[in-house]
Amino acid sequence: MNDLLRKLSALAAMVVLCAAVLLAADVRITPVVAEDRLYANFAASAAFTDDVRTAVASGLPVTLTYIAEVRRSSALWFDHTVAATTVASSVKFDTLTGAYQVSKLRDGSVHWAQQTQKEDEMRLWVTEFERVPLTESSRLNAAGEYYVRVRARDSLPRGFSLWPWGRSEMSGRVELPVSR
User: Fold this and answer.
1) Which domain range does residue 92 map to?
2) 41 phi and psi, to 5 degrees?
């Protein structure tokens, strides 16, 4: 009985680890250092799901929110968040004109807005961000191990869930090079 329980526990742990690896591949991240600042370029094409596409096509405004973080790895405790930035892209489809209105928000204010009638173009605009400012590179200790993590979620309403940790998210992670 103990042997069976141990095997089931090991199998469950492997399933959880495999799921974590698959989820980590949802967002592609490229860190960029320029002008003594650390920026992140990222793309989360998997964030534009069939549910999101259906909601947009119906004329419902949809917002995709991304949280980009610089974190310092810790061997003994939880990783420390050095800096975090929240960006979002919002899209609304005008069913009369067939045009998509896309806005990109940073820290709650619109910093870019554009209109298109091409769905592929709109999809790129809402799932890709360039030069998202994270922190001054001088704040990072050269001896530390850092990584950039980006989490994404949509604004679609979900049904009631007993799951205590909220809605599903997707994420990606990339280690920062040692020499900064």
Assistant:
1) 27-156+166-175
2) -105, 135
